[in-house]
Structures are given as C-alpha cells and as structure tokens.
Amino acid sequence: MVFLEPEQYQQRCAQLFNSYQKDISTLLPFAKIEHIGSSAIPNAISKGDLDIYIEVMSEQFEFAIERLKTLNFIEKPNTLRTHELCMLESLSDDDVALQIVVSGSIFTFFLAFKNKLIDSPTLVNEYNQLKLQCSHLDPDQYRAIKADFINRVLNHL
After folding, report:
1. Residue 75 three-state SS
2. Residues 6 or more apart from 59 whose CB is under 8 A from it?
3. Which helix (H) or strand (E) holds 31?
C-alpha cells in the first residue's frame, strides 16, 4: 500500500468533493452530505481516495441508494451492508466511495471520528504512523488494525 502526503492529494479530493456534493444535493436535497475520511483531515496521509458521507432518514435510505447509483456508482462488494449502512463505489476512474448512513444509527461514527481527528493533531500523527506501519500488510489486515484505532478513538469521546 502506498500512502500519499496531504499536499499530494487533499486539494484534488476537496475539488472532487465539491463537484460530487452539487450532484448529490440535486438528487437528494434532504440529505446531509459531508466530506469524510483522511482527505477531510488536515495533515493526514492517505491512499488518495475520497469518501463522502450521505446521511438520510430511514424511510429515504433505499431511495437514496438507487438515486446515487445514477451517478455511476455500484454497491461496493465485500463490505458491510445493513438497513442503516450502504457503501457505494464509483465506476468512474476517480477512486470515490459513498457511505450512505441512516440518521441516528451507529454509523454516524464516521463524522465523530473525523471531527475527533480534526480536533487533535496528536491523533492525526498516531493515525499516520499506524498507516505507515501497515503499508506492507494486505488490505484486510490493514482494515482490522485501522478499525481497532478508530474504536479506541471513539471510545474516548
């Protein structure tokens, strides 16, 4: 796994987010749309991908997923899919993922984690070091170690 320095990817991700945000808010004017993931956290290293958080009420969830697929997205295989969380990935060559989340569900942790790191340069540094130490691991091993870090951060809210 190769990680990029913030100056190598964050500006591109911010521009891409702004573009997608316009399209998503046109399709889903009722949705809360936020830039999440490492590209939304100052000084965080990343694989260079963009994650977009889309929060809707439970009765809008399946409708929102179907509407978002019209932006050239498909359900991401081999990821958690529940009645409160669905991850979509772009079929375009832009490395974008959408996290569709039901309001009030446990999956709102995406925002809590982002905000916790934005507020703590120390945690960002720890997160960066963890990523660098995992660069030789396969994606599943990396995700497990990253999940442990996220849980530790969130349990100290």
Report:
1. strand
2. none
3. none
Distance (Å, whole) CA 28 – CA 30: 5
pLDDT at 120 exceeding the cut of 70 = yes
Instruction: Look up tokens 């999940």; give the residue.
Output: 147
Q: Which two tokens stand for residue 135?
A: 């660069």
Q: What residue ranges in the chain does DSSP mark as E strands?
A: 32-36, 50-56, 73-75, 85-90, 96-102
| Residue corresponding to tokens 């945690």 | 123
pLDDT above 80 for 157? no
**What is the pLDDT confidence band of residue 156, given thresholds at 50, 70 and 90?**
confident
Secondary structure letter of residue 74 according to DSSP: E
